[in-house]
Design goal:
Elements lengths: L3 E4 L3 H13 L3 E6 L7 H5 L2 E4 L12 H11 L3 E3 L9 H9 L3 E2 L4 H8 L1 H10 L15 H11 L3 E9 L2 E6 L5 H16 L4 E5 L5 E9 L5 E13 L2 E7 L6 H17 L4 E9 L5 E7 L6 H8 L3 H9 L16 E8 L1 E2 L5 E2 L2 E2 L2 E3 L6 E5 L6 E2 L6 E9 L2 H14 L1 E3 L5 H7 L3 H4 L7 H4 L12 H21 L13 H5 L2 H4 L3
Parallel strand pairs: 1-2, 1-4, 2-3, 4-5
Antiparallel strand pairs: 6-7, 6-8, 9-10, 9-12, 10-11, 11-14, 12-13, 14-21, 15-16, 17-20, 18-22, 19-21
The protein binds ligand MV4.
């Protein structure tokens, strides 16, 4: 039985995992780098071990340091979170060798799914639909030309060792085949140390729909339905929701069966995600499997009513799944937005720095998975995601309305964030009507621009007026700036342009 878990991660996901551990009566061990001395995941754990300098390749990615901390603390299991070592087969294997339970799949599953050509072959053998294309690495350019002529342009050339959009190339013209394939190969070699590439027919304007699965070590496997993740920017998900607005009951059932078949094909154990691309006619194709807990897992937790981390720990303990496919139902609708420290109105420039003040909205149907606090300085060494906000509603309409209300009430100052951009997404008719695919962000760039990109003078007037109001409120309340909500700080007033302008 697992009694103490080391979380080989940082930030929000480390805290997320610890929350479930606490509920299960399991002790928690944090690890932290130099830059993370003040991170809340360190305070949140029962004990914490320093593992080195800020760059992750000198701390969170160093297997020996993580193992050393695990032994020093007496942890009997390691949860890798997402990113870092979560999909590292060597790490999974090493944990096993050290007598530490890795809360995740074994090296075989990670390796098979990590090599995209092997994954494609395995899926074909398991009867899971894949995008039409090659099942062996492309050996030379001549072969590439021949294959592409068979498949028909346009095609995608992808690195077998890639994934998540890394090492991909779109080829639309015959005269580009030679240069694209050779460039793809040399890029793959440089990036992954493996120049194997494969070719797929290009699916135009697809949806990204993924299925959550859970498998125990006794051969039982279920799916927990889909997540629609088509709102992406440069292969970074921005908004995720479940159920998918385009899904039908019939296709959901079929895709779910194929997702389970995909997991069973690699003897999977743990929580995993099968990614599909889906065209407008709901033809779907296996793209890749993520052999970890994903960032967007909370929307599934809420709609299906299952704590995925708890299930991961129970599976690692060797327990059988306590529910069957028929027991699982989707209830209502959940939406997640990822809040980044970046400036959406300045080409999404990273906006690191100190969070001056954060006040997250509360109320029915809101969940925050975060780790920052007022006064916290976001380190520049890691992912700039500040937090995830998840809302639930009885249906999609209610969930969107709730998300609007929550984003409107979200106060975060000191750094620029994606909150205004996310708020604008909630008003784009194509999103509201559920008519969007992976081109959404690009196709609706105009609608996603700030309302008044606007008049900088107006901004100045607002700032000055707000500050005057603030000074006024200080005078009235002597030293109490809040004044029972009558007078607001300029930071609040910034977000309330319309009510402030009474010049
Ligand atoms: C594709 C595709 C179209 N056709 N493959 C991007 C991420 C990686 N997981 C695979 N990706 C794609 N593969 C074929 N054969 C289009 C994409 C793609 C995409 C997929 C999912 C979500 C967002 C995307 C954005 C651009 C391209």
């Amino acid at each position: 039985m697992i009694k103490k878990v080391l979380i080989a991660n940082r930030g929000e996901i480390a805290i997320r995992v610890m929350r479930t551990c606490k509920e299960m009566g399991i002790s928690t061990v944090a690890v932290y780098s130099e830059a993370d001395r003040t991170s809340r995941h360190v305070q949140y754990a029962d004990e914490a071990y320093f593992i080195g300098p800020s760059p992750s390749n000198e701390s969170y990615l160093v297997i020996d340091k993580i193992i050393e901390a695990a032994h020093a603390s007496g942890a009997d299991a390691i949860h890798p979170g997402y990113g870092f070592l979560s999909e590292n087969a060597v790490f999974s294997e090493r944990c096993k060798k050290e007598g530490i339970e890795f809360i995740g799949p074994d090296a075989f599953a990670i390796n098979t799914m990590g090599d995209k050509i092997t994954a494609r072959k395995t899926m074909i053998a398991a009867g899971v639909p894949v995008v039409p294309g090659t099942t062996e690495p492309i050996q030379d350019i001549k072969e590439a030309v021949k294959v592409i002529k068979e498949i028909g342009l346009p095609v995608m050339v992808k690195a077998s060792a890639g994934g998540g959009g890394k090492g991909m190339r779109l080829v639309t013209k015959e005269e580009d085949i030679v240069s694209s394939v050779s460039a793809a190969k040399s890029e793959a070699l440089a990036a992954f140390g493996d120049d194997a590439v494969y070719i797929e027919k290009y699916i135009n304007s697809p949806h990204h729909i993924e299925f959550q699965i859970l498998a125990d070590k006794h051969g039982n496997c279920v799916h927990l339905f889909e997540r629609e993740c088509s709102v992406q920017r440069r292969h970074q998900k921005v908004v995720e929701e479940t159920p998918s607005p385009i899904m039908t009951e019939k296709v959901r059932k079929e895709m779910g069966k194929h997702a389970v078949a995909a997991a069973k094909a690699v003897n999977y154990a743990g929580a995993g995600t099968i990614e599909f691309i889906v065209d407008d006619d709901l033809n779907y194709y296996f793209l890749e499997m993520n052999t970890r807990l994903q960032v967007e897992h909370p929307i599934t937790e809420w709609v299906v009513g299952v704590d995925l981390v708890k299930q991961q720990i129970k599976i690692a303990n060797g327990e059988k799944l306590s529910f069957k496919q028929e027991d699982l139902k989707q209830n209502g609708h959940a939406i997640e937005v990822r809040i980044y420290a970046e400036d959406p109105d300045n080409n999404f420039m990273p906006s690191p720095g100190k969070i001056r003040y954060i006040d997250e909205p509360l109320g029915l149907g809101i969940r925050h998975d975060g780790y920052v606090y007022s006064g916290y300085e976001i380190p520049m060494f890691y992912d700039p995601m500040i937090s995830k906000m998840i809302v639930w509603g009885k249906d999609r309409e209610e969930a969107i309305a709730r998300m609007r209300r929550a984003l409107d009430a979200y106060t975060l100052t000191g750094v620029k964030t994606s909150i205004p951009y996310l708020r604008r997404i909630m008003d784009v008719p194509a999103f509201v009507e559920g008519r969007y695919n992976t081109h959404f962000v690009q196709d609706h760039a105009g609608e996603l621009k700030p309302e008044e990109d606007k008049d900088e003078q107006l901004q100045d007037i607002i700032a000055i007026t707000a500050f005057a109001d603030y000074l006024d409120s200080l005078k009235q309340s002597q030293s109490k700036p809040d004044n029972n909500g009558k007078a607001l700080s300029p930071w609040k007033l910034f977000g309330r342009k319309k009510s402030v302008i009474r010049l």
